[in-house]
Design brief:
The complex is a heterodimer of chains A (158) and B (291). Chain A has 158 residues and is of the alpha+beta class. Chain A has five helices and five strands; from the N terminus they run E-E-H-E-E-E-H-H-H-H. In chain A, 47% of the residues are buried. The model of chain B has no long low-confidence stretch (mean pLDDT 97). The chains are: A alpha+beta (158), B alpha+beta (291).
C-alpha cells in the first residue's frame, strides 16, 4: 500500500495542510480536495492547457504534476485573479473583447496569459498567438483572446 | 486517465536517487519535469511501482561556464536554457531551439536530463546535443561514466542508459570563434513536435568553411548528423550550387517514416528545404561576425 503524504501548500494566499495520495494530480487536488473548481480539466495529458495554474509564479500544467510535488509551494489559480464585481484588468479585457464563449478554456488562457505578460515582450500578435498555442479554444477562433491580451499589454484595457 | 498507485520517494541527492534505483531494479522510474512521463502515467502506458522524484535535489539545475565547456545540471528547465545569458553567448543555437519546444508551461517544468533520457525521435534537445557534441555524465550507485551524445541515442525512446543509472550532467563544448548557426523547424502548429527540424553550425575563416555540422530530427528513430554533407562544406565557400549539392546529399542519406502527420516523401522534401535555409542562415551569421 502506498499510503498518503502530508503536504503543506499555499493556494491563493491561503495555507492548507492535507494528506494526499502521491498519485493525486495537482489539478484534481485543487478541484476535489480544495473545491477550487475554477481550474478546468480537459485532456489530462498536457495538451489542452485548461488546467494551467501558477506554481511559485511559473505557469504549469496542473495535470502533469502531482499534488505531493507542490508541498511547500505557492499555487495561484484563476480564483486568485479577481472575483465577480472586481475582475482583474486581464479578466476585464477578456470580458470587453468577448474573448470567451463557453468559458471552458478561459481559466487556462488567463493563467497562461499572466505568465506570458510577465516573461515575454509580446510585441507582435504572432508572439501572443505562439504563446497561446498550448491552450486550445474551440469557440472563439482565438482572435478576440489575442486582442484582449494585446490590450492589456499596451495598457489599453478597460 | 489517472495514474496507477505508486510509491513516492523524494531524492535529496543524486547518490540517494541512484541508490533507490539500484535497490528497486526495473520497478522504479525517475520523475524529473514529468512532461513526458506524467502523460504516460495518466494513460497507464507505464506503471512503475516506485517514482523517484529528483526535483528537490539541490543545485542540480545549474548552467555554468567551465573553461571551454558549458556544464548543465540534469534539472535545468527548458525555459532556463531559453533565457540563460551563458547559453545565449556560447550556444545561441540551443537557446533558439528551446523556443520551439512545446509551450511555456511545459518549458517551465521540462528538464534537459528528462528530454535526453526520454529521447523522443522528434524532440529538439536530443538533436541539439548531437549537434553540439555533448557528453552526458551518467551516475549509478557503482560510479560515474561519460558517454557521447552520438553513442547515447539508440532508437526511438531508447538510450544507452542502465536501469540503475541517471543522467546527472550534460557537458556542451562552446562553439568555436567565428561560428554561425541556423535552426529551422516545421511543425503542424507552434509547439508541436517537429515534422522535421534541422540545426546547423558553420565555422569559417577567411571566407572559407573550416567546420560545418548538420543535425536533423524527425527523419528517423533517432536524431542524426549528416557527416557526408558536412564534409562537402569543409574548405569551401558557401554558394548556391554547393548548398544544392548538400541538400541532395541530405535527402539521399535519410529514410524518414510515414506516419499520421506526414509522409516519408514530404519529410525528405522538408529535410532538404530546411537544411538549405539553415545553412544560409548560419553562413549569414558567420559572415556578419567576421565582417
Amino acid at each position: 500500500m502506498t499510503g498518503t503524504r502530508d503536504i503543506q501548500v499555499t493556494v491563493n494566499g491561503k495555507a492548507y495542510a492535507l494528506a494526499v495520495e502521491p498519485r493525486l494530480l495537482l489539478a484534481d487536488f485543487l478541484r476535489q480536495s480544495l473545491g477550487l473548481t475554477g481550474t478546468h480539466v480537459g485532456c489530462e495529458q498536457g495538451v489542452c492547457g485548461a488546467c494551467t495554474v501558477l506554481v511559485d509564479g511559473d505557469s504549469v500544467r496542473a495535470c502533469l504534476m502531482f499534488a505531493v510535488q507542490a508541498d511547500g509551494c505557492t499555487v495561484e489559480t484563476v480564483e486568485s485573479l479577481g472575483r465577480i464585481g472586481k475582475l482583474s484588468p486581464l479578466q476585464e479585457s477578456f470580458h470587453a473583447h468577448h474573448a470567451l464563449q463557453c468559458g471552458f478554456c478561459t481559466p487556462g488562457m488567463l493563467m497562461t496569459a499572466t505568465d506570458l505578460l510577465k516573461k515575454y515582450p509580446l510585441t507582435t500578435d504572432d508572439e501572443i498567438r505562439e504563446g497561446l498555442s498550448g491552450n486550445l479554444c474551440r469557440c472563439t477562433g482565438y482572435e478576440h483572446i489575442v486582442k484582449a491580451i494585446r490590450a492589456v499589454k499596451v495598457g489599453d484595457a478597460p | 486517465m489517472k495514474p496507477a498507485a505508486f510509491e513516492y520517494v523524494v531524492a535529496d541527492s543524486v547518490a540517494n536517487a541512484v541508490t533507490t534505483l539500484s535497490e528497486a531494479g526495473s520497478k522504479a522510474k525517475i520523475l524529473a519535469g514529468g512532461q513526458s512521463l506524467v502523460p504516460m502515467l495518466n494513460f497507464r502506458l507505464v506503471r512503475p511501482a516506485i517514482l523517484v522524484d529528483i526535483n528537490r535535489i539541490p543545485d542540480l539545475a545549474f548552467i555554468e561556464e567551465v573553461g571551454d565547456t558549458i556544464r548543465v545540471g540534469a534539472l535545468a528547465r527548458h525555459h532556463q536554457l531559453e533565457i540563460s545569458p551563458v547559453v545565449a553567448k556560447h550556444l545561441p543555437v540551443l537557446a533558439a531551439a528551446m523556443t520551439h519546444v512545446a509551450h511555456l508551461a511545459i518549458r517551465n517544468r521540462g528538464t534537459i536530463g528528462g528530454s535526453l533520457s526520454h529521447a523522443d525521435p522528434a524532440a529538439e534537445l536530443p538533436m541539439i546535443a548531437l549537434l553540439l557534441n555533448a557528453k552526458l555524465c551518467l551516475v549509478s550507485s557503482k560510479g560515474e561514466r561519460t558517454i557521447a551524445a552520438s553513442d547515447f541515442f539508440r532508437d526511438a525512446l531508447t538510450v544507452a542508459i542502465g536501469e540503475d543509472e541517471m543522467v546527472a550532467e550534460i557537458h556542451l563544448p562552446k562553439l568555436p570563434q567565428n561560428t554561425g548557426w541556423g535552426f529551422e523547424e516545421v511543425a503542424r502548429r507552434a509547439g508541436d513536435f517537429a515534422l522535421v527540424a534541422v540545426a546547423v553550425t558553420v565555422t569559417a575563416s577567411d571566407d572559407e568553411v573550416t567546420e560545418a555540422r548538420i543535425a536533423l530530427t524527425g527523419v528517423g528513430s533517432t536524431p542524426v548528423r549528416m557527416q557526408k554533407a558536412e564534409t562537402l562544406l569543409r574548405g569551401q565557400k558557401i554558394e548556391t550550387k554547393l548548398v544544392r549539392q548538400v541538400v541532395e546529399t541530405v535527402r539521399a542519406a535519410i529514410t524518414p517514416d510515414t506516419d499520421l502527420h506526414a509522409s516519408s516523401d514530404y519529410r525528405r522534401h522538408l529535410a532538404g528545404v530546411l537544411t538549405g535555409r539553415a545553412i544560409s542562415a548560419a553562413w549569414k551569421r558567420v559572415t556578419e561576425t567576421i565582417a
